[in-house]
Amino acid sequence: MNPLKPEFAYLSGKLLSSRVYPEFFPLQKNEHVLNVGFGDGPQALVYDGNFQEMIGVEIQTDRLERARHMLQSQGVERVRLVEGNVEQLPFESDTFDAVLAIDIVEHVQHPDIFLQELFRVLRPGGRMLITFPAMHDHFEDAMSFVGRLLKPWKHRAQHHHEGPWHPDAHAHVHPIPVWKKRVEDTGFVFVKSRATTMFPPLHLYGISRFWFSIEWLHALDRKIASSRIQNLGQTVMAEFSKPLA
Fold first, then answer.
1. What whole-number distance in Å separates Cα of residue 223 and Cα of residue 245?
2. In the chain, alpha helices (H)
3. End-to-end alpha-carbon separation of the chain, Å?
4. Buried-most residue among 22, 43, 71, 74 (CB within 10 A)?
5. Is residue 146 part of a domain?
6. pLDDT above 90: percentage of residues in the chain
């Protein structure tokens, strides 16, 4: 992966925290990968060189254009971007070897339709990486409450959105076991899971993500994040597979 150019410094934190995905869910160089909710594209950077082709689907035009410019400037190849609704994927069934569904299921309007679409386009025997929000939002809500009490700290939680549906808002809140069951009810088979990190989202308050950059600390965090208390982490990432028959 090429070093980030200064104009893409806004991605540095996301890129650092995205290191957990290939550690947990490695891709193969011959795989055709679907990345739904592509956003600014940090997963394409962290997986660069480890897929045959990645197709990123994103509903927001501005993010799509920003991601397209970043990929071209960074020299990332074999990534094709598609603007569209992830609940109506424009692909034939049994197309992809792997699916990345990172930080998206809680945002879509109809999670069950979304999951059915992912199941449809994934080939039999294919794999999916999906994430579920765990303690991240609870921590942010708690800190925002404290911030409102301890003026002049003005930080407020940003994941809530009032009014009509918006792709950046969390539209659904469920415990981790409920999310996993909804995926299994679609036909997927659960393989494994772990938290992305057990540290709270301190980066929201100006603290660098040292828990990802210090190697021994990251190794310890990774071990705890794989234990039975993983649901107390920021986010839980899970691997599911599509049965062969």
1. 34
2. 12-17, 20-24, 42-46, 61-74, 111-121, 136-149, 176-185, 210-213, 215-225
3. 37
4. 43
5. no
6. 80
> Domain holding 105: CATH number?
3.40.50.150
C-alpha span between 159 and 187 (Å, rounded): 30
In a domain, 120, yes or no: yes
What is the sign, positive or negative, of the torsion defined by CA atoms of 212, 213, 217, 222? positive
Residue 189, domain member (yes or no): yes
State pLDDT tens for residues 131-151.
Answer: 999 987 766 655 554 455 555
Q: What is the count of structural domains for the chain?
A: 1
Number of residues written out for the chain: 245
How far apart, in Å, are the Cα atoms of 121 and each of 59, 171, 214, 244?
A: 18, 24, 38, 14
Distance CA 7, CA 18 (A): 19
pLDDT of residue 233: 96
pLDDT at 153: 44
